[in-house]
Amino acid sequence: AGSPRDALHHYNxxxxxxxxxxxxxxxxxxxxxxxxxxxxQAMPALGxxxxxxxxxxxxxxxxxxxxSLQLYRRHRFETLEIRALMKLTSFLATTxxxxxxxxxxxxxxxxxxxxxxxxxxxxxxxxxxxxIAFIFRRLGSPRKVSLWLYKAVLLSRELNTGSLPSVxxxxxxxxxxxxxxxxxxxxxxxxxxxxxxxxxDQ
Length: 202
Hints:
Strand content: under 5%
Number of helices: 9
Shape: globular
Structural class: mainly alpha
């Protein structure tokens, strides 16, 4: 129980069956699971400065997700594609990358940014905007963090706050305290939002 090696064995078997049955959704989700098992198996090694090994692990994860994303895209499962992109870009944002792999991270992040506005559910869209902000925070880009929190602010104002999912209530409470977000107030600029967030961290 709890063995990444055993999980990889089961995922590989599941991949073979999914390919035989030509089920794209199951195959894509199995590929994502395989990528998670690869990461878990390599976790003890990822903490060391072994660029070659880390690059090998990251390369395996990227290739598995690349096939998964292609399946979602080919069959127009945009919501699943966006969720997969969030997982992959979050992983790449927190992992040491070889110089040749940094461009991959930017490419997947651009895909996520382009797809985010296409979500039909505004609550899902809001969560994606926040995830993009967190990714930029991991990458050490405070201005882009502020920009995507600003987008979340504007979208939050358009939603019916009485029906907000419980997971978003703390977010709404936080946004409501920022300058310019009171009823009838002016829209905050990204720079003003950046100053307000910095003040809140002190």
